[in-house]
Amino acid sequence: MKEYGTTLTQHSRKTYKPKFYINAENYQRWILIDRCGRHFGAILNFLRDGTVALPESTRSISELHAEAKYYCILDLADFCDRALQNKQKEPEPICRVPLITSQKEEQLLISSSVKPVVKLLINRHNNKYSYTHTSDDNLLKNIELFDKLSLRFSGRILFIKDVIGSSEICCWSYYGNGRRVAEVCCTSIVYAATQKHTKVEFPEARIYEETLQVLLYEDRNIPDQELLQATASVRGIGTGISTYTSDEEEIQVVDSRV
C-alpha cells in the first residue's frame, strides 16, 4: 500500500490528502485509505497506462466514477462521465421475453412474477408424424401473434417462450397468481387413409379471449368472480382450467355421447 499510495499522491499531490498511519514497531509510514478496494485495480491501471477498460454495467461505472472523484483523478472521472452519458442515450428495450432453459427456471419465473403470465410452447421436435399442409403456416401465425401480444401487453403481462418443452408442439398456457388457469393447445392428430398426421391450428379468437381473461388477475389476489362469469362463454371456469379443443375433437365427443 505504501508504493500505491505514493503513486496516488504523485498524481494528485495538490488535492488528494490521504491519512497516514505510523507503525510503532518499525516506524514505517503507511497510508490508510478507507475505501472499498473493488475498483482500486482499475484506478492503478489508469494511473500507470493512462487508460482503462470500463465495466459494462451502469452501476459499476458509477462506482468507479465516485472512486475517481475521491482520489481526485479528474481525467478518469471525465472518462466515466462521458460513458455514463452515452449509457443514458442508449435506447432501453421496452419488451423482454425470457426464453426458458429449464423447468426449474420456468417455475421460478411464474411463481415470482407479480404480473399474469402467458407462455407459448413451441417445439417442432416433439412431432412423430408428418404435418398437414396448413400446419406450417399456422405454426408461424401462432409465433407472430405471440410477438404481437408481447409488444402490446408487455407492461401488464409477463410473456415467456418455451422451446425445450417435451409435452406439446404448440401450446399456450395462462397463469394467474402463480398457478395455471387456462390452456390453448393448438395441435391434434388426424387420421388419413394410410397414416397419421399432426395438425397445427391457429385459434386466434380463443387466444385473444384467454389473454384478456388473464388480465383479470392483474393487481388482484383473486379475480372478480362476477367479471369472470360475465366474460365467460361456455368455458366451464367453475370446473377448473379452461382448455381449448378443436372443432373436430368436439364433434367426436358429441358423437360418442350420442
UniProtKB/TrEMBL annotation:
<dbReference type="InterPro" id="IPR003131">
    <property type="entry name" value="T1-type_BTB"/>
</dbReference>
<protein>
    <submittedName>
        <fullName>BTB/POZ domain-containing adapter for CUL3-mediated RhoA degradation protein 2</fullName>
    </submittedName>
</protein>
<dbReference type="Pfam" id="PF02214">
    <property type="entry name" value="BTB_2"/>
</dbReference>
<dbReference type="GO" id="GO:0051260">
    <property type="term" value="P:protein homooligomerization"/>
</dbReference>
<dbReference type="InterPro" id="IPR045068">
    <property type="entry name" value="BACURD1-3"/>
</dbReference>
<dbReference type="InterPro" id="IPR011333">
    <property type="entry name" value="SKP1/BTB/POZ_sf"/>
</dbReference>
<feature type="domain" description="Potassium channel tetramerisation-type BTB">
    <location>
        <begin position="22"/>
        <end position="76"/>
    </location>
</feature>
